[in-house]
Amino acid sequence: MLVLSRKVGETIWIGENVEIVISEVQGEQVKIGIRAPRSINVIRGELRQDVLNNNTEAVVTNLDLLKKQK
Asked: Which of 28, 51, 55, 60 has the fewest CB atoms lying closer than 10 Å?
């Protein structure tokens, strides 16, 4: 993992077309802006994990239903 220090207004670039902007720092909270093409999905980590967990749960539930039908 790359760890960088940035101040408000400074940026980080990922590749040629994704820019991360530090917009505000208040205590332990950092607000960032992300400029990226619409074709790139941007999602918070905890939401991504929730989606993965829900998808796994749905598959297990469907497998259980299929087993009961046999």
From this structure: 28
